[in-house]
């Protein structure tokens, strides 16, 4: 599964499976179990085929379930795959355009089908037909998960290239066998295969043979293969919808209701999920300007659960000793659509207090109008100057920047039909 | 001599109108300039990137160990940029400029930017000379104030990313700087000025181009792209610089299909853009960033030496480069461009060519369509025949390079590779084979 943006995919790449913390593994397990119940895992394991389920609301858009077939196809163990993004299966020859197509579909809550070159754990590439579909929640109509089905396109192209390798090579059978690998990953090349490349490049400096080494050229799927993708998708959805009835969090394949005004799009949630720091987004166009997004770090800082803060005005953070003049200052800035920085006494859920170095800034959407306010919190006592990194104030402003870019670019499609 | 009149873009608050005063008062000193009077005291963040970086994602995973001290794009660039925004250094709030994706197959992006060209008189630009000497008397980036600088960008000595929040600016060490563009066309719009104090004219060289690729790779986000305009292709300042900004949407040029036409022996794939109004070449891949940088710089050097104006887009985290020779300014100077197109005052530089149209008139914004964008860009493109000629020049330049370098530097490469880590082994074998063949 392709994750939403490369920053998230590059950070996914940096995270090795051993580094995935137990809290995020809990979140991943919970993401599946709370919607389908854990019994759905057994039912999915009985299905044939290669597929994964991913959760766009968890930072990095990780895989939360991978089928037996998928693990066999890629050569990974389940715990090497769950919790990580789709970028781990991509490599040198994976078409950037196809990935862009997938990324766009995910951003727009659409399904999409492409031929994709992926890599197994041992580094060997293979073509597959990749089909990703959103799973919608019946209530609220937001995307809960994505399901991706992968049907390997059995080595037609690779076999053809092997024969080209024999033809172009020195005739040494031992060398041409490795040639298929060699043109995909330089590291596993042996001298013979390199020689093949060099001989051809010595001829005319550049290799003008367009037929050669075309693992980057999309491999067309047959109608049978396309059908088997849809069959697999049907089976998966019937398991998912069936088991979602047991948890009461019904899911469906088509969007059944129009998402609430206050709800953010999946793509915006994916972008915001990358931000590690404490912040909330509030919507000034809804009555009483409620919180519409709260980051994990905010929940950690304040001790509240997400559903205890969403929909509420930020004033619950205040308490008996919170200074009224500071609150007045905040209200004035918001009225004038201006950013402001204040030091304000806030209270956690357990009523312990902390000094919050709060920065609030308006965030405009693509129409140029203020769509949200972002509030970024720094706990003043924790403001230990990390001499190696950016100052806390700069990091606070960087959150504002990331949020501004996300909101602006993800609302550019509004008004036009999503193609 | 061919000249066009256009409104120059104000990239710095210290840029003077021709014969006029700078928009910000300049004088005495104490304005924190980059001259010897102020530079000694100056402190600026320094970001040092890891040089030995593979161009391809899959291999990156093997080399990554530990988190970098600061996220290059999300923390450093955006944090510093937002700080300058709150200090009011920009001429307008770009996020208040309306923007939209134009319906259609390609998804051209339109922005209505009425503030970018205000208060400036049209100036004459010579468009028939791609290479012109540096002129100390004209505006250049050594004249900006320190507050417009964001950080220093260089390669790390010890193979690890390093970050120093308060580093001195060592003029003798030829620092490359990243500065804001005070007339941004999107959020995070910055300028990369390689070896600023060497006062290089706008002209691609291998080292500077590699630096630009590294910046794209370091950002690690396909929506943070770098661009380059040569003189005659709508660069307005003859002081070597690349531009960059962050727009989280695919550009039409990135969506256009391509046809592979060649592959270099270092693994760089060269394709031709298809079904796109501007003809151009796409360079992708290569075993290292250097391979890609070398072949593209050679192509650029060939173009500038042949006096052919061009634009370059660095996309996909530095893994993909679009090279677009163009002739719009020349046509404009010769009076061959439709008055209706000229009226829009859109200067087709790298961003416009890539499909991000910055429009100055509300009317053009409201009427923006794929057909209109296409019509403008079609004027930018070389004719098919001319493009073939230019390609022939480029391929000649690239091919001879491949052979020459193999012959001249193979020994050096072997020595260098010996001291490097394992992944270089395959390359060593390759160069040895090459020597034998020679």
From TrEMBL, chain A:
Domain of life: Eukaryota
GO CC, alphabetical: nucleus
Keyword Flavoprotein attached: yes
Entries under SUPFAM superfamilies matching the protein: PYP-like sensor domain (PAS domain) (SSF55785)
CDD domains documented for this protein: PAS
Molecular function terms from GO: photoreceptor activity
All residue ranges annotated as the PAS domain in the record: 36-84, 291-337
PROSITE patterns, A to Z: PAC (PS50113), PAS (PS50112)
Keyword Flavoprotein (UniProt): yes
Keywords linked to the UniProt accession: Chromophore, Flavoprotein, FMN, Photoreceptor protein, Receptor, Sensory transduction
Domain PAC: start-end pairs: 110-165, 338-392
Protein name: LOV domain-containing protein
Protein's organism: Arachis hypogaea
TrEMBL record, chain B:
InterPro entries cross-referenced by the UniProt entry: GDPGP, GDPGP1_C, GDPGP1_N
Record domain GDPGP1-like C-terminal: where: 252-400
Pfam families, A to Z: GDPGP1_C, GDPGP1_N
Keyword Iron applies: no
The entry's keywords: Cytoplasm, Guanine-nucleotide releasing factor, Hydrolase, Nucleotide-binding, Nucleotidyltransferase, Transferase
Zinc is among the record's keywords: no
Location, primary (coarse class): cytoplasm
Signal peptide range: none
A Gene Ontology BP annotation from the UniProt entry: glucose metabolic process
Molecular function (Gene Ontology), one example: hydrolase activity
Domain GDPGP1-like N-terminal, chain residue ranges per copy: 73-245
Database matches in PANTHER family: GDP-D-GLUCOSE PHOSPHORYLASE 1, GDP-L-GALACTOSE PHOSPHORYLASE 1
Family the UniProt entry places it in: Belongs to the GDPGP1 family.
The protein, known as: GDP-L-galactose phosphorylase
Lineage summary: Eukaryota, Viridiplantae, Streptophyta, Embryophyta, Tracheophyta
């Amino acid at each position: 599964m392709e994750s939403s943006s490369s920053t998230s995919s590059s950070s996914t790449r940096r995270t090795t499976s051993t580094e995935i913390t137990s809290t995020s593994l809990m979140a991943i397990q919970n993401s599946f179990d709370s919607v389908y119940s854990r019994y759905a895992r057994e039912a999915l394991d009985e299905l044939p085929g290669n597929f994964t389920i991913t959760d766009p609301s968890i930072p990095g858009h990780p895989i939360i379930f991978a089928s037996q077939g998928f693990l066999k196809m890629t050569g990974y163990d389940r715990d090497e795959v769950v919790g990580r993004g789709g970028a781990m299966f991509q490599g040198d020859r994976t078409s950037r355009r196809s990935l862009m197509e997938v990324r766009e579909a995910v951003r727009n809550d659409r399904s999409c089908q492409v031929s994709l070159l992926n890599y197994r754990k041992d580094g060997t590439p293979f073509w597959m037909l990749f089909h990703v579909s959103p799973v919608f929640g019946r209530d609220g109509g937001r995307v809960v998960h994505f399901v991706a089905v992968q049907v390997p396109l059995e080595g037609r192209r690779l076999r053809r290239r092997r024969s080209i390798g024999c033809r172009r090579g020195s005739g040494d059978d031992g060398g041409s066998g490795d040639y298929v690998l060699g043109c995909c990953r330089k590291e596993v090349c042996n001298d013979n295969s390199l020689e093949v490349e060099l001989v051809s490049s010595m001829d005319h400096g550049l290799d003008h043979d367009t037929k050669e080494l075309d693992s980057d050229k999309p491999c067309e799927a047959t109608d049978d293969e396309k059908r088997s993708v849809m069959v697999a998708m049907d089976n998966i959805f019937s398991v998912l919808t069936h088991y979602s009835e047991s948890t009461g969090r019904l899911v469906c394949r088509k969007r059944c209701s129009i998402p609430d005004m206050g709800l953010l799009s999946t793509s915006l949630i994916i972008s915001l999920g990358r931000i590690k720091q404490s912040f909330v987004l509030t919507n000034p166009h809804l009555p009483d300007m409620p919180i519409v997004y709260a980051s994990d770090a905010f929940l950690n800082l304040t001790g509240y659960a997400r559903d205890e803060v969403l929909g509420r005005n930020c004033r619950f953070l205040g308490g008996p000793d919170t200074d009224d003049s500071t609150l007045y200052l905040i209200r004035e800035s918001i009225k004038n659509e201006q950013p402001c920085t204040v030091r304000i006494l806030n209270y956690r859920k357990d009523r312990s207090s902390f000094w919050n170095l709060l920065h609030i800034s308006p965030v405009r959407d693509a129409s140029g109008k203020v769509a949200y306010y972002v509030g970024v919190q720094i706990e003043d006592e924790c403001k230990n100057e990390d001499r190696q990194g950016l100052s806390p104030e700069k990091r606070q402003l960087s959150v504002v920047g990331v949020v501004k870019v996300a909101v602006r670019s993800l609302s550019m499609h509004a008004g036009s039909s999503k193609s | 001599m061919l000249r066009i009149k256009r409104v120059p873009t104000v990239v710095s608050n210290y840029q003077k109108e021709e014969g006029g005063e700078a928009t910000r008062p300049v004088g005495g000193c104490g304005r924190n300039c980059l001259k010897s009077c102020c530079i000694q005291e100056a402190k600026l963040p320094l970001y040092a990137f890891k040089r030995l970086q593979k161009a391809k994602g899959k291999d990156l995973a093997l080399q990554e160990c530990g988190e970098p001290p600061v996220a290059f794009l999300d923390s450093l660039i955006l944090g510093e940029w937002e700080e300058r925004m709150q200090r009011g250094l920009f001429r307008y709030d770009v996020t208040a400029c309306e923007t939209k994706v134009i319906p259609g197959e390609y998804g051209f992006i339109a922005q209505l930017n009425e503030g970018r060209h205000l208060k400036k008189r049209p100036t004459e630009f010579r468009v028939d000379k791609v290479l012109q000497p540096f002129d100390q008397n004209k505006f250049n980036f050594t004249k900006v104030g320190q507050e417009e600088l964001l950080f220093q960008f260089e390669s790390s000595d010890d193979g690890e990313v390093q970050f120093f929040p308060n580093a001195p600016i060592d003029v003798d060490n030829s620092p490359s700087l990243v500065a804001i563009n005070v007339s941004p066309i999107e959020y995070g719009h910055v300028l990369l000025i390689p070896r600023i104090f060497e006062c290089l004219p706008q002209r691609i060289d291998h080292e500077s181009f590699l630096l630009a690729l590294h910046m794209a790779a370091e950002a690690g986000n396909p929506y943070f792209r770098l661009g380059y305009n040569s003189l005659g292709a709508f660069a307005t300042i003859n002081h070597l610089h690349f531009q960059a900004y962050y727009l989280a949407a695919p550009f039409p040029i990135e969506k256009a299909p391509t046809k592979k036409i060649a592959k270099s022996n270092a693994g760089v794939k060269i394709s031709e853009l298809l079904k796109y109004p501007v003809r151009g070449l796409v360079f992708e891949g290569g075993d290292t960033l250097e391979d890609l940088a070398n072949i593209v710089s050679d192509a650029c050097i060939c173009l500038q030496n042949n006096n052919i104006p061009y634009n370059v887009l660095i996309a996909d985290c530095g893994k993909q480069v679009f090279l677009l020779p163009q002739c719009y300014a020349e046509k404009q100077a010769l009076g061959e461009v439709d008055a209706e197109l000229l009226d829009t005052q859109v200067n087709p530089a790298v961003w416009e060519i890539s499909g991000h149209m910055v429009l100055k008139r509300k009317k053009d914004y409201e009427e923006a369509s794929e057909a209109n964008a296409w019509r403008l860009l079609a004027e930018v493109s070389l004719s098919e025949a001319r493009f073939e000629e230019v390609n022939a020049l480029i391929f000649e330049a690239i091919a001879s390079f491949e052979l020459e370098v193999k012959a001249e530097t193979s020994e050096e490469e072997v020595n260098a590779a010996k001291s490097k880590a394992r992944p270089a082994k395959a390359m060593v074998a390759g160069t040895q084979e090459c020597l034998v063949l020679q």
